[in-house]
Amino acid sequence: MATQYLDDVIQGHRVIHTLDVADLAAGEHKFMFRIATDALSQWQHLPVMVFKGKKPGKKIIITAGVHGDEYNGVLAAQKTARELVGKELAGTVTIVPMINLTGMLNHSRDFYSADPDASPCNLNRFFPGDANGNEANRFIHALWHHLLQPNADLAIDLHTQTSGTVYPLYVFADFRLEQAIEMARLINPDAILNDPGDAGVLETMWNSSGIPSITIEVGMGRYTELTLIDRTVNGIFNILKHHELLQGEVDAVIPCLEGQEITSIRAEIGGFVIPQVSMMDKVEQNQLVAIQYDNFGDELKRYYAPNGGTVLSYNVESIRAPGSLVVRLIH
Ligand SMILES: [Zn+2]
């Protein structure tokens, strides 16, 4: 595949239809990637930044915004790009900071289609897409085949917890892949989960294509957490130095909690839930973790840990629908 340039220039940036970083000149490139039309036959474009070193080396792709309400991931991708400006690289870093454009415009995790047959959907279950599928499938097909897949030896996908709930700095890695667990540890997160993967998830798609990858959860949905963003960028630079894309000393890996499974405690009925635990607290079996109140403010229900573990997530938005997350533990 070769980089295919179209005639258009949008806001000063050349429009491409396919990307192959191998044929780019060394230096810093900003493109608009033409991904698909909307229902009004208007083309949609994803911003893409490529930092290509004069010296050969590995190709790393950083993506964010597969879920449209996970802005800390987007901000970490953008900050990584700002910090790469003017750096001498060996290899290529490609950054795609926002993928789910319709979700972002709606402050929503989901992708929105104007197809009356399609409900809003989780794009991170659609990889590698389908050229003959519905709108989301076609969108992901173009993204995967024309932009992502040809340009990576290693990959990092940036997320946050779903809106209304919070994570620490938390990494998913398939522990069967040496380079995935190694990247996860180089982030120096608060917790890592062994993630054998799920069908349609970008991280799983990368791994099953022979490209080791990790998913990083940068705190909470929607709201800005600068400390976690800075730690993420620092971790990404640690990975770049370890793989010799950048010169410099790699920060020592600080051992963190590495879990094999999680337990999600979910609201049994609707109501207002106030957590009784803090992030990364160790809890014992049967310990109180949350109290739920009805519309009058009277106590409705108490939630207890079904087994011992460490608090990985809890709700920061008090109103909880039946089945929605209250507390998540990692073991
Ligand atoms: Zn996400």
UniProtKB/TrEMBL annotation:
Co-factor(s): Zn(2+)
Instruction: List the SUPFAM superfamilies.
Output: Zn-dependent exopeptidases
Question: InterPro entries attached here?
Answer: AstE_AspA_cat, N-alpha-Ac-DABA-like, N-alpha-Ac-DABA_deacetylase
Which Gene Ontology MF annotations are present?
hydrolase activity, acting on carbon-nitrogen (but not peptide) bonds, in linear amides; hydrolase activity, acting on ester bonds; metal ion binding
Q: Which UniProt keywords apply?
A: Hydrolase, Metal-binding, Zinc
Can you tell which superkingdom this protein's organism belongs to? Bacteria
* A matching Pfam family: AstE_AspA_cat
Domain annotation Succinylglutamate desuccinylase/Aspartoacylase catalytic: ranges: 56-242
Q: What is this protein called?
A: Succinylglutamate desuccinylase/Aspartoacylase catalytic domain-containing protein
- In its UniProt entry, the species of origin is given as Vibrio scophthalmi
